[in-house]
Amino acid sequence: MRSLMPPPDFPETVDSLWLDARLATLAGETPYGIIEKGAMAVDGGCIVWIGPCDRLPKDAETRARSVRRLENFWITPGLIDCHTHLVYAGNRAREFEMRLNGATYEEIARAGGGIISTVKAVRMASEMELFRQSASRLTAMQAEGVTAVEIKSGYGLNTSSELKMLRVARRLGREFPATVMATFLGAHALPPEYAGRPDAYIDLVVDEMIPAVAADGLATAVDAFCERIAFTPAQTERVFAAARQYGLAIKLHAEQLSDSKGAILAARSGALSADHLEHLKADGAAAMAQAGTVAVLLPGAYYFLKETRRPPVDLLRRKGVPLALSTDCNPGTSPTTSPLLMMNMACVNFGLTPAESLAGFTVHAARALGMQARWGTLEVGKQADFAVWDIAEPAELSYRMGGNPCRMTVKGGEPVNPSGCRF
Ligand code: DI6
Ligand code: FE
Fold it and tell me: What pLDDT, on the 0 to 100 scale, is given for residue 4?
């Protein structure tokens, strides 16, 4: 771990200067990396100076094209939602009702509901409609401090619909002040037309879909659902091999419902992250630690499915595996757009500390996307993506159940919603 660096020289001119803030930098050796009475200067979309106000040069304000005084509000790095299925159509409220009348998630999935019911809705939706429905979810996330989001495909399950989902993800990133990183999840579920022929479907994923995704530059990573209701480790391995061939990063839904040994496979394949992990065992955690694979915990899915088995947080801590958190925003198991609610659930249900929860949505989430050089902390050289909060201390972000204390989301130094901004 680094310690907080002394403030660097202040540049001749800067685009903006942010004064009188309390900074939770998430850098350095203390849990939040706090700088009280802090200041931050931004130029060209990046942080160029950060430190205590009393270390600023006397004429700093005259060197800034704009100055904002934050009245002691807190600033954190922009939240990074590193595992979402945000692009989808329709909802699954009726299945929620069925589960409350006694059916299990796996029973519903086997009876053609579950992921497949969303696949039907996505295949039917026009690209415009899919964009419209997804955009409202992204807007809700941005209002809660999110500046970057990973979005998976996986509700198309044929080439044209998978590409449609990924084009919608790309368009969201172009039209909204948020960075979207798209992940191809063709191996999410077996589409009905391939019933009983999973290997033939994996042929399609490997021989047609991944080359098409790569040719259009529509995703930077590939993911799969390695699970007894989805794909075997051998099938998953074929997907990973194709990802490697096309230079795409690897992620995996692993050990969500059973210990399928997906995490070991992911780690050995150099995966950025293995996600869910409720059923992870010591061998999987050791493999992840050795490979530097991030554990992405998804407390929304755990809560919504009323799981009772918690991911082995102590084991992961002992092994030094970085713990990221994410919404898993999806219609079936985690219909939420709220990172703060996930932080609360991670504390209450998984035993994370509030500091670990915030790190899970910032510094470790950046690592889960391979973006730690640009995102995740407030440090010189990082992108000026941050959130301004009306809170008295950082633990309050995890403490609340609902409500939104975010007063401003800033992307590349620019307020996301300038008209609603009070500073
Ligand atoms: N695990 C999940 O929790 C989501 N996908 C996955 O592989 C669920 C997706 C859904 O039910 O629609
Ligand atoms: Fe997921």
Answer: 60
List pLDDT tens digits, range 385-417: 999 999 999 999 999 999 999 999 999 999 997
Measured from the CB, is residue 256 less than 6 Å from ligand 1? yes
Ligand 1 centroid, distance to 114 Cα (angstroms)? 8
Q: Is the same domain home to 146 and 57?
A: no
Domain assignment present for residue 4? The answer is: no
CA of 303 to the centre of ligand 2 (A): 14
The answer to whether 84 touches 361, Cβ cutoff 8 Å, is no
Q: How many domains, in total, are found in the chain?
A: 2
CA pair distance 291, 153, nearest whole angstrom? 26
Ligand 1 in contact with 354 (CB < 6 A)?
Answer: no
d(CA 253, CA 86): 16
Ligand 1 geometric centre to CA of 158 (Å): 17
Measured distance CA(73)–CA(408) in Å, rounded: 10
The verdict on the CB of residue 331 being under 6 Å from ligand 1 is yes
**φ, ψ (nearest 5 deg) of residue 296:** -100, 115
pLDDT at residue number 109 = 83
What pLDDT is recorded for position 1? 43
In short, whether 305's Cβ falls inside 6 Å of ligand 1 is: no
Q: Which residues of the chain fall below pLDDT 50?
A: 1
Listed in sequence order, the residues at least 6 apart from 169 whose beta carbon sits closer than 8 Å to its beta carbon are 86, 87, 134, 151, 153, 180, 182, 218
For residue 41, the enclosing domain spans 14-77+376-415
CATH code at position 216: 3.20.20.140
Shared domain for 124 and 152, answered yes or no, is yes
Q: Are residues 306 and 355 in the same domain?
A: yes
Closest by CA to 332, choosing from 103, 139, 80, is: 103
Predicted pLDDT of residue 110: 80
pLDDT confidence of residue 51: 97
In the structure, ligand 2 is a single-atom ion and the residues with CB under 5 Å from it are: 328
pLDDT tens digits, one per residue of 240-269: 999 999 999 999 999 999 999 999 999 999
- Ligand 1: residue whose CA is nearest its atom 10: 332
Among 84, 115, 137, 256, the mutation site with the greatest number of ligand 1 atoms within 8 A of its Cβ is: 115
What is the pTM for the complete model shown? 0.96
* Amino acid in position 406: C
